[in-house]
């Protein structure tokens, strides 16, 4: 049954988005943890590559350590993804009726960027907590769980400011990341429906345009969208992580001074490839399947919940 009203529409999108986020993040959780360790240059894993780092975590800690911090991730990702996808649908709906040429052509980018900013603002403290938990190694635990991490940071690192450390570079990075993610996915989806309706799409009379992407079509569009978005925003992601984890080690405390200072310091000490783009190889390994899984699951959930996943290609 199709949505009865706007509230029903929003609730269905919230469910679809939340499930999509959880599936995507669970699929790449081990890669997410090693990415954090490499970005922040943990003394235990700084000389390891992607697969060497994953192997070292299993040997030095345990196989379950690959999912360290994933509890906080799940607590964060459901409301984050639910808010992001639902906000995108709402912003896209309202932007599509605004007759401003500049917005008209970039409505999906603007809607995606605004959705990303909305979701991050509401859930950022949980991302900081998850990063702290994931950065810990066995035998050197400072925190015992989500609540303990939040309270410890609040008491010892300056209150609510500590939970939002790295928020500015996250916002700056989120605009191109979320904007390009949604813009690329929607654009590629349009191209598939217009130029490959028989190979990457199938008929669905209920949808606008009478077509729906096949699962391979969803994965291709999502994967390419993730690759483009990550390439543009990655240096700011590194900056955010350094700022979030600055107080974990006296040697890295200097990275908590502010976004511009941290960005400059990373560049001066390590350059572009070994500093601002450190961990980029693993980021592609995790980002492409993660975004592909996220968009694919979201589209499948929308179909299951009787929501329109088509578009006009006339």
Automatic annotation (TrEMBL):
Protein's cellular compartments: Mitochondrion inner membrane
Main localization of the protein described in the UniProt heading: mitochondrion
Annotated keywords: Membrane, Mitochondrion, Mitochondrion inner membrane, Repeat, Transmembrane, Transport
Chain ranges passing through the membrane: none
Family: Belongs to the mitochondrial carrier (TC 2.A.29) family.
Name listed for the protein in its UniProt record: Graves disease carrier protein
Tagged with keyword Transport: yes
Solcar repeats: 8-94, 103-191, 217-304
Membrane topology: Multi-pass membrane protein
SUPFAM superfamilies in the record: Mitochondrial carrier
GO cellular component: mitochondrial inner membrane
Biological-process GO terms, alphabetical: transmembrane transport
């Amino acid at each position: 049954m199709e949505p009865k009203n706007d509230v029903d529409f929003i609730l269905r999108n919230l469910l679809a988005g939340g499930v999509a986020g959880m599936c995507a993040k669970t699929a790449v959780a081990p890669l997410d943890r090693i990415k954090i360790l490499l970005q922040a240059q943990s003394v235990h894993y700084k000389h390891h590559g992607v697969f060497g780092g994953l192997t070292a975590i299993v040997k030095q800690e345990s196989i379950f350590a690959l999912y360290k911090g994933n509890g906080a991730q799940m607590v964060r990702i459901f409301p984050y993804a639910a808010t992001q996808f639902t906000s995108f649908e709402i912003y896209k709906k309202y932007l599509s009726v605004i007759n401003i040429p500049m917005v008209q052509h970039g409505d999906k980018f603007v809607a995606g960027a605004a959705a990303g900013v909305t979701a991050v603002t509401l859930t950022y403290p949980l991302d900081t907590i998850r990063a702290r938990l994931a950065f810990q190694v066995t035998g050197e635990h400072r925190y015992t769980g989500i609540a303990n991490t939040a309270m410890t940071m609040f008491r010892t690192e300056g209150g609510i400011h500590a939970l939002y450390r790295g928020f500015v570079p996250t916002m700056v990075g989120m605009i191109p990341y979320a904007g390009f993610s949604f813009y690329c996915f929607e654009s590629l989806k349009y191209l598939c429906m217009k130029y490959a309706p028989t190979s990457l799409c199938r008929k669905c009379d209920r949808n606008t345009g009478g077509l729906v992407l096949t699962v391979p079509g969803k994965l291709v569009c999502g994967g390419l969208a993730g690759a483009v978005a990550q390439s543009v925003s990655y240096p700011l992601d590194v900056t955010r992580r350094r700022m979030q984890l600055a107080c974990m080690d006296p040697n890295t405390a200097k990275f908590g001074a502010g976004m511009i200072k941290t960005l400059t310091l990373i560049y001066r000490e390590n350059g572009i490839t070994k500093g601002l783009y450190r961990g980029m190889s693993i980021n592609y390994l995790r980002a492409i399947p993660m975004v592909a899984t996220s968009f694919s699951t979201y589209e499948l959930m929308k179909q299951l919940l009787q929501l329109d996943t088509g578009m006009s290609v006339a």
